[in-house]
Amino acid sequence: MMCGVLAVAGLLVAPRAQAVHAIAQYGDPKYPANFKHFDYVNPDAPKGGTLVLANPSRLTSFDKFNPFTLRGNTAPGVDLLFESLTTGSSDEVASAYGLLADDISIAPDGLSVTFHINPRARFSNGEPVTADDVKFSLDTLKSPQAAPQFASIFGEITRAVVVDSQTIRFEFRQRNRELPLLAGGMPVFSRKWGMKPDGSRIRFDQLAFEKPISSGPYLIEQYDNGRTITYRRDPNYWGAALPVRVGTNNFDHIVYKLYSDSTARLEAFKAGEYDVLVEYVARNWVRRDVGKKFDNGELIKQVFPQHNGTGMQGFMLNTRRPLFQDVRVRKALDLALDFQWLNRQLFFNQYTRIDSFFANTDLQAKGLPSPGELALLEPWRAKLDPAVFGPPPKQPDTDPPGSLRANLLQARALLQQAGWTYRDGALRNAKGEPFRFEILDDSGSSAQMEPIVATFIRNLQKLGIEATFRVSDFAVYQKRLDSFDFDTTTIRMPDVQVPGSEQIERFGSKAADTQGSDNMIGLKSPAVDAILSALVHAQTREQLIDATHALDRVLMHGYYVVPHWYSATHRVAFKRGLAWPKTLPLYYSAEGWITSTWWFAQPQAQAQPR
C-alpha cells in the first residue's frame, strides 16, 4: 500500500492517480499514514460490560433490521452492524480514512475513485468482503427496492466497476469533490443477505428480521417483540486493530429498551433500568432530572461542549398545501412564535434562537452578499424576493422595545395583504374559508412539545387562526411524513459541517415529488436548484461557502420554517462508573460518541446482558 497524505486539490490535476490512506474534500487529512488512533479516543480503554440505552429517537417500537428500505421502523443501533469503505474523523470536516478499504485513488480528471479492499475484511458470516459485494450494495441502494433517497444521494455515481476481487472503481457523472467521500461512505453489505438455502432471494424491500450479513463490530444477539434488542461485540471482528477502530467499541453488549413515551423513559432511567440519558429538554434537565440518586452521586449530570452546526429545527410548513404557498402567510406564522417568552418560562434561558439553516458555523449567511454569492443570485434576480439581496432576516424579538403585540400587528398586516381578513369570528380568505391547519407530532415527543405548541396556538388564535395539535404513534406519524400528508410538523434537519448532496435531498425540486425524501417543505425552485448544483460542484472551500451562504439567504427569506432554538452543548446524565476520553471530539452526536468511545471504569455488578 502506498502511503502519504492526499491533497485532493493537487490530485485532481495530477498527471496520474496515487493510492493513499485517506482523502479530504478540501486540503489535507489531519492524520498521517502512520497514525495509531484518533486523538479523541482512549487506546487503552478497557473492554467489557453491558451498556443499556433507551430510545435514541422518537421510535417506540421496531419491525425490521433493514435500515435501507422505506416501509417500517428500523431497530435502534443497527448502524453498529454496517461499515463502509471509509470512515470520517470527529475532529475535522470532510475527510475519509480507510476502513474496509486500505488504498484510495482518485483519478486525475476527478471522474472516478478506486478503492482497494483490505484483504482481512470479513462479513459476520466469515466470508471476505469483495468488490462484488460493494457493487451489489450500490446497485441495490440505487434500485426501487431501497428507500428513494438513496437513489438521490448516490445519483451522481453512474456505476461501480469490479476491477478485480479486491478492487472497485466508482465512476461519476461529472467532477465533484464530494463524490469520492460519498462513494467511500456508502454502507456495504453482503450480496448473500436475504439469500435462501435453495439459492432464491428475498426481495430487498421485504427483508425484515433477517439478520444483516455485514462487517461491523457488533452482531444482533437477541430481540424481543419490537421493544428491546441486544447487540454483542463480535469476538472475531476483523477490524479491531485498525487505527480508525483502536479505542472504540468498548462494550461487550449494547442493549436498547424502547419506552412508550418520554415520561416513562425518564422514570425508567431514575429507576436504574438503563445507563445513559441524553437530555434534549431544558426543563427536564433543570426540574425533572433530579432526585435522591442524583444527590448521592449514583447518577451524574454533565454538560459536554460541541461544535456542531445547529442544523434546522422548527415547525416545517408543507408548501404543497395551498394554505402555505404565500410567503407573507409563512412570515406571519413566524411572527407569532414568541421565543423570548418560551426561553424564560420553559427553557430556563438555556437556548439561542436559530436564525440560519447553518447557524453556529461559518456557513451562515451574514451581512450583504459577497461578490461570489451575487454571482449565483443575480441570474435569478427576477424570480427572487428583492430582500434576498440584502442582509438575512432577523428573527422576531419580543424583548423590549419589541413586543408580541407589535409582532402580531405586523403579522395581521401581512395576512391581510395575502387576502386573509378577520370576519365572522375567524380569519378567512376571499371564499370565506377559515385559516385552519394541523400541527402533527408523534406520541414519543408530544409531552415536551405540548406546552410549546399550546403557546404557539394561543398566539395564532389572536390572529383568528385555528391550529390544532394532532398526536399519533410513531409508525403512523412516519408514514404521514413519508407521503407528505401533513400541514405542519416539528423536524430537525441534522447538522452538517460540509454541505453536499444531502442538501439536494432536502431542498431540490426532484426530491419534492419523491415520497420518503427529506424535502419536507415541498420546495421547488429553479434558483435553489442552480445554487445546489454550484454547492455540490464547488472546487474550493471559498466556492462552497459562497454557495451555502446564497442557499441560506434564499431559504431564510422564504420563511419555510418557523425556527426553533439550539444549544452548543450536549446534556448527558449517566450512571456512576462510566468513563470517556479526556479529549472530546469537535463534531459529534452524543449517542454515537457514547456507544463508540465510552467504557466502564468500574466493574459492573451485573456482567451479563440485561
Automatic annotation (TrEMBL):
<feature type="signal peptide">
    <location>
        <begin position="1"/>
        <end position="19"/>
    </location>
</feature>
<dbReference type="Pfam" id="PF00496">
    <property type="entry name" value="SBP_bac_5"/>
</dbReference>
<dbReference type="GO" id="GO:0042884">
    <property type="term" value="P:microcin transport"/>
</dbReference>
<dbReference type="GO" id="GO:0030288">
    <property type="term" value="C:outer membrane-bounded periplasmic space"/>
</dbReference>
<dbReference type="GO" id="GO:0043190">
    <property type="term" value="C:ATP-binding cassette (ABC) transporter complex"/>
</dbReference>
<dbReference type="GO" id="GO:0015833">
    <property type="term" value="P:peptide transport"/>
</dbReference>
<feature type="domain" description="Solute-binding protein family 5">
    <location>
        <begin position="98"/>
        <end position="509"/>
    </location>
</feature>
<protein>
    <submittedName>
        <fullName>ABC-type oligopeptide transport system, periplasmic component</fullName>
    </submittedName>
</protein>
<dbReference type="InterPro" id="IPR039424">
    <property type="entry name" value="SBP_5"/>
</dbReference>
<dbReference type="InterPro" id="IPR000914">
    <property type="entry name" value="SBP_5_dom"/>
</dbReference>
<dbReference type="GO" id="GO:1904680">
    <property type="term" value="F:peptide transmembrane transporter activity"/>
</dbReference>
<keyword id="KW-0732">Signal</keyword>
<dbReference type="InterPro" id="IPR030678">
    <property type="entry name" value="Peptide/Ni-bd"/>
</dbReference>
